[in-house]
Design a protein that fits this description.
single chain; 3 helices; about 70% helix; about 0% strand; elongated; transmembrane helix; transmembrane; membrane; Transposase
């Protein structure tokens, strides 16, 4: 019978520190220092970078939405729409 190995779950704080360290000294060195397999370190970094990309895309969408609202309000000043 085999026993199921429990997986270690890393906190967001640990992942953020791992990212800072990897940016400073490189992925392989950070993995060694944090006692992680290099593939696990790469996985953590990829997750964080993906999260940053999603936040950046959301920020861009919010800015575009705000611009659209401003354009609609400018159009409403001509009496076409009194919603602004």
């Amino acid at each position: 019978m085999t026993t199921k190995k429990t997986r270690k779950v890393h906190t967001p704080e640990f992942k953020a520190e791992a990212l800072k360290l990897a940016e400073k000294i490189g992925v392989a060195a950070a993995a060694k220092e944090l006692q992680l397999y290099e593939l696990k370190a790469i996985s953590i970094l990829t997750q964080l970078q993906t999260g940053k990309a999603i936040i950046s895309q959301l920020h861009t969408l919010i800015m575009a939405w705000q611009l659209l609202v401003i354009m609609i309000c400018i159009g409403s000043s001509t009496g076409l729409n009194s919603g602004c």
